[in-house]
Amino acid sequence: MADFGISCQTYNDTSLAWIHQCIDQYLGRAPTVIIPQLKSVKAPSLTAYHGQDSTEQFENWMMSVLLWMRVLQLGGPELNNERVHVLGMVLLGPALEWYQQEVGSLYRSRINWTFVDALCALHNQFVHRANAQTATEQFEAVTFDPKDGVAAYYTRLRKYALRMVHHPDPYTFK
């Protein structure tokens, strides 16, 4: 049975560590080779994040933004400020209001924002602890469908397991 009594701090620590890891993997280093043709690539329109309280929606949105920034060669510490500004361009609704007040305003809560800090603060503002329970419930609700096969079943289990604060033990996957 799942442990729904996890602390808010544990959930936050796990989520924020994952965000840090993703940003480091996609944007931690400046491109070693500048490819001028990439600057002229028409990037697809990114879906804006509105501040939905959904781990899955936040993660999907964040990963598309990170991939888009990587293709546009916005990696490395020297482009941090540009990434912070671009972040405001891919937000709408309550998320944009939060960004404008906390990150973009002259009266913002702090003067110097890093991209990592802004993205983590955005996550903390809108994605709440109850989502850890949702991931556990979704994991436990996955059923095997013979027409999809074992690989699809495993993929769905893994998708929700990775969003859980306490990952299931190997026996649970069997």
Describe the structure.
With 174 residues, the protein is mainly α. It folds into 2 domains: 8-33 and 47-126, no CATH class; 130-173. 59% of the residues lie in helices and 0% in strands. It has 9 helices and no strands. α1 (8-27) runs parallel beside α3 (55-71) and α1 (8-27) runs antiparallel to α6 (115-126). The chain is globular.
SS content category: mainly alpha
Number of self-contained structural domains: 2
Order of helices and strands: HHHHHHHHH
Termini gap:
15 Å
**Whole-angstrom Rg:** 18 Å
| Total E-strand runs | 0
The stretches of 5 or more residues where confidence is low (pLDDT under 50) are: 1-8
Task: Classify the helix fraction into a percent range.
Answer: 55-70%
Approximately what portion of the residues adopt beta-strand conformation?
A: under 5%
Mean pLDDT reading: 81
Q: Helical segment tally?
A: 9
Main pleated-sheet profile = none
Which descriptor suits the 3D outline?
globular
Short description:
The protein has 2 domains: 8-33 and 47-126, no CATH class; 130-173.
Topology:
Elements (H helix, E strand, L loop, with lengths): L7 H20 L8 H4 L15 H17 L8 H10 L3 H12 L10 H12 L3 H12 L8 H12 L8 H4 L1
Spell out the key features of this protein.
174 residues; mainly alpha; 2 domains; 9 helices
